[in-house]
Amino acid sequence: MNEKPLQVLLVEDNVGDARLLREAFRAERAGSFELTHLVRMSEAVVHLAKGGVDIALLDLGLPDAHDLDAVRRAHAVAPDVPLIVLTGLNDEALATQAIKEGSQDYLIKGQIENRALPRALRHAIERQRMQAELIKASEELKKLDEMKSNFISIAAHELRTPMTSIKNAVDLILTKKTGDLTREQEQFLLMAQRNINRLNGLVGDLLNISKIESGKFELLLAKIDLKQLIEGALITLRPLAEKKFLPLHLNYSVEVPALRADAGKIEQVLINLINNSIKFTPESGVITVDVHQMENVPDMPDGVLGYVEISVADNGIGIPEEHRQHLFEKFYQVEGSLSQKERGGTGLGLAISKGIIEAHGGKIWFENNEGKGSKFNFTLPIVDVEQDCFTLKNELSKAKLKTLPLSVLILNVSNMESLLKSHNEMGNEQVLNIVKERIVSFGIKATDKIAVSPLTNEIILIVPDTDKLGAQALLKRIFHNISAQKAALGDCFHSIIASIATYSEDGTSDKELIEFARGEIKKQTNKLSAGQAARDKKRVLIVDDETDILESIKFTLEQEGIECIVALDGEDALAKAKKEMPDLVLLDVMLPKMNGYKVSRLLKFDEAFKQIPIIMLTARAQERDRQVGAESGANEYLTKPFEMAELVALVKKYTDV
Ligand code: ADP
Predict the structure, then answer these.
(1) CB 3.0–4.6 Å: which of 48, 229, 240, 458 could bond 453 by disulfide?
(2) Distance 220 CA to ligand 1 centre (A)
(3) Ligand 1 centroid to 268 CA: how many Å?
């Protein structure tokens, strides 16, 4: 075999030691090793930088490199070359440290057997090669995992929109507003509804897990009443527990203080744990939720005053010890405990719970419940809840420190009712959260902070390092994206009013900035209601291609305090009717581009506009024309030339003026 000799670099200042080491290669086949001996590290660095070295043997006591210097310098110029440290008996500790810093091995001088040295070199080279392969493989796995997470997130988002419309449609049919249903139809639709809800839950879980994994998980921190939260979760799950005759107990120690946490997310954890206990506990078992404050916790982070421990214990089927370390991994389920059908679920609940608790600065773990059943425990930190729970203060002090601008965007959902209507059965907090989620999914920066404030119906976005212009551009983008999502969210975005407050021009403290932004919102709301008051005047759309007639009608109606909009052809009429939502349309029949009958038909057959009354104006007085007019949906038919007084009377009749 004609293998290339291994290039060995020996850096050793002791000539005797160097000779002994050379000896060690004597017994090897000629041409299998080629040794370069250098005395100083500075020479070694130059030699290594040239490349071609397969392995380096480094003495730790060189004239120009002490302790681990030699290792670090060699590693810096040739990170892929395996290193072996040569050491005297008395600095073995240092050699161990060298291993931690990346050396492959250490050899103690005077103890090296001749045959052992070449073997040690070959092994070190092989280990280094395997390590490099492992690192490469793990990087590839990481990349794959990231791609998979991204895919899950995109797929889940894409699924949400069509699912929402399927859900809305099924829910609507089930209300029977669209007509009666037979018993079978209702049963099948209920089945569809149950499965859509399940699918919704699954997609929600997938989105949660991908957010946790990508670090985009947002918490809405507020002062919470933990007891109330647990009682709420117990009320939700009691009917399920009662089906299996399982009592749900709560032991709550009175000393537990108020906490700062994301109520919705903590409730999600509680529901998951209690729900699991119900699922995995046979009839006549017991489930207990226990809450107490932990005593003497060592090494608490800054600002943490203590911890509350919450546990959910059952005396159900339990979990064998070997599963303990995997329980909180995503998609992990204990095989064999229950059939997949009985188990249900996806194995995401505990992984999400872990993400939620850790994001709060707490821990979650499992233990056997005294030999029978399971006990899941989690902790939440106790902090000073009176401290501003919103991060604006923090962000502002960072901005001040770095003399950077900072903007606060407030989106006020002024017409919450219409939002709630388009999301039946949801509270305003949930709806705000959906809007918030939309905004997050369009892509805000990782440093931006977003929160909803259900009390004031606001979504608040803090954008560090962004001046007013930047914030305006962001707001524009948000509105653009939101309106593109109208189908999924209902047509309620016209009612979102937004404002921007920028540090330092609009205020220098958190309170000043929030007040400024709210003040701007108020100004806009006032303007809007003034506009609506103006619109309280009735609005009439006059459609005629003869400008003289048009102007005279317009003039007469305006004298009566009626607002007039005009259109000169059929297409324009249709567009303006849809845009301006008039209270009445005066419609000529003979129009360019689209005749009046067609305009009338198109409006009257559109759910959104069919209630707008239409008065047809035409010179044709024959009976047949009247009939066509009536069939196209017109409410009245006025023959030209008509008396203005007659027209005014009709307009007033239809607009309640
Ligand atoms: P899921 O309940 O959707 O399967 P989880 O992540 O919540 O997902 O739980 C993962 C697995 O842990 C369950 O499938 C079950 O095997 C086991 N497990 C969780 N809680 C309990 C419990 N209280 N008793 C027994 N097994 C449990």
Answers:
(1) 458
(2) 27
(3) 15
Global model pTM greater than 0.85: no
pLDDT, residue 192, reads: 93
- Could you give the CA distance from residue 383 to residue 386 in angstroms, rounded to a whole number? 9
CA angle, residues 382, 216, 389, in degrees to nearest 5: 35
Q: Ligand 1, residues 271, 287, 333: which to mutate, most atoms within 8 A of Cβ? A: 333
> 548: how many CB neighbours lie within 10 A of its CB?
8
C-alpha to C-alpha distance for 378 and 268, rounded to whole angstroms: 13
Q: Per-residue pLDDT tens for 137-155?
A: 999 998 888 888 778 877 7
CB contact burial 579-604 (16+ within 10 A = b; e otherwise) = eeebbbbbbbbebeeebbbbbbebbb
For residue 310, count CB atoms less than 10 angstroms from its CB and return exposed for 0-12, middle for 13-18, buried for 19 or more.
buried
* Polymer length of the chain: 657
Q: Which of 202, 246, 276 to mutate to test the pocket of ligand 1 (most atoms within 8 A of CB)?
A: 276
Query: DSSP of 163-217, one letter per residue?
Result: HHHHHHHHHHHHTTTT----HHHHHHHHHHHHHHHHHHHHHHHHHHHHHHHHT--
**Going along 430-487, which residue ranges are E strands?**
449-453, 458-464
C-alpha pair distances (Å), 175 with each of 39, 170, 417: 90, 9, 19
